[in-house]
Amino acid sequence: MCIIARFQVLCRYKSLATKFPSFPMAPKSRPSSDIASFKEMFKNKKNIAVLTGAGVSAESGIPTFRGAGGFWRKYQAQHLATPEAFSRSPSLVWEFYHYRRELVLTKKPNKAHEALAKCQKILQGNGQKMTIVTQNIDGFHQQAGAQDVIELHGSLFQTRCTKCQDVTVNRNSPICEALRGKGQPDADADTSNIPLHDLPHCCKANCNGLLRPHVVWFGEGLDPDVLRAAEQAFEECDLCLVIGTSSVVYPAAMFAPMVAERGVPVAEFNIETTPSTNVFQFHFQGPSATTVPEALGV
Ligand SMILES: NC(=O)c1ccc[n+]([C@@H]2O[C@H](COP(=O)([O-])OP(=O)(O)OC[C@H]3O[C@@H](n4cnc5c(N)ncnc54)[C@H](O)[C@@H]3O)[C@@H](O)[C@H]2O)c1
Ligand SMILES: [Zn+2]
Questions:
Q1: Whose C-alpha in 89, 100, 197, 238 is 20 to 30 A from the C-alpha of 229?
Q2: Of ligand 1's atoms, which has the minimum distance to the CA of residue 288?
Q3: Nearest Cα to 270, choosing from 28, 18, 51?
């Protein structure tokens, strides 16, 4: 329930559920894992929408939230990514995000990000289109060369002022002196309790508001413009790829099943099955840094 409650925008989807009365859909037959027939079908597609989640970055060394990597110290990652956690302890939440920023800065995109970026470029050259919509906040798709990536949940490398709402790109390492050497993930690491005035603050004249990561936290709504752009991509596509996502975080979890409901092929790439696997036409089981380049042939 708390996951569903994550996005107030979910109510918008009630209208979609009315439009697609059989949602959530009854399982169809088992999806195919035949790469050759996927490739044959892919050739004729003009408009491909891709949805990625934490799994696509797992082989870059960025832990997913579900599974062993989902803990930071004694906290479950989802419990720190909330506005309540930030108002209770901005220091603790900044330590967590500082850890995640520094981790991403030491890692790089993997073969799945690279294959998608390369494929997008090739398709563009042929008058076709690939739109990448990601739940990730690591920026790896863009770093691999992908264009016009729709970041549903914001970015680790943007901050938002809690006072004037200014959004700024910030890749400083560390983001402020007080966080240098902080954020160790070990369960027994000490909490730093950094005084508020030493945490990142807004540089705009006469503001000096406390900054927060510009990411969508559990319990917060998505930016309506970003959501609209994502919806459009999935409404217009003639093929959908779902890569490394557990299909349980809404509203992203509804995009691919809604595409399948239109009769448009959806191919899932994951190391395991998900609650939506059986409504998709293809399921390629395995690590996405192997399966995605193979399926896209790049
Ligand atoms: N890299 C990141 O930016 C990052 C990392 C962790 C969490 N998150 C956030 O956590 C939320 C969780 O949603 P989610 O569904 O994206 O992630 P999730 O953690 O819920 O699920 C990850 C999925 O990836 C699959 N997976 C793991 N390793 C894989 C691999 N090598 N190849 C293919 N699939 C693999 C898992 O089976 C699982 O289904 C999102 O909102 C996202 O913003 C982001
Ligand atoms: Zn400000």
A1: 100
A2: 32
A3: 51
Supply the pLDDT for residue 87: 97
Q: Which of 109, 77, 69, 107 is nearest to 93 (CA)?
A: 77
Choice among 65-74, 171-180, 215-224 with the minimum mean pLDDT: 65-74
The pLDDT of residue 13 is above 80: no
* Nearest atom within ligand 1 for CA of residue 112: 32
Q: Which of 64, 141, 152 is the best mutation target for the ligand 1 pocket, counting ligand atoms within 8 Å of the beta carbon and taking the most?
A: 64
Q: Which ligand is nearest to the CA of 6?
A: 1
Residue 14 region, left (φ>0) first, then alpha (ψ -120 to 50), else beta? alpha
Pocket test for ligand 1, best of 65, 105, 151 (most atoms within 8 A of CB): 65
Task: Report which protein residue has its CA nearest ligand 1's atom 41.
Answer: 135
Question: Chain-centre distance of CA 264, in angstroms?
Answer: 22
pTM (two decimals):
0.91
Residues 6+ away with beta carbon under 8 Å from 262:
none
Three-state secondary-structure class, residue 22:
coil
The pLDDT assigned to 28 comes to: 59
Verify whether ligand 1 is closer than 6 Å to residue 183 (CB atom): no
274-286 burial, b at 16+ Cβ within 10 Å, e below that, comes to bebbbbbbbbbee
Q: What is the pLDDT of residues 231-281, one digit of tens each?
A: 999 999 999 999 999 988 888 899 999 999 999 999 999 999 999 999 999
Which residues lie closer than 8 Å to 85 by C-beta, 6 or more apart? Answer: 79, 92, 93
197 belongs to the catalytic site: no
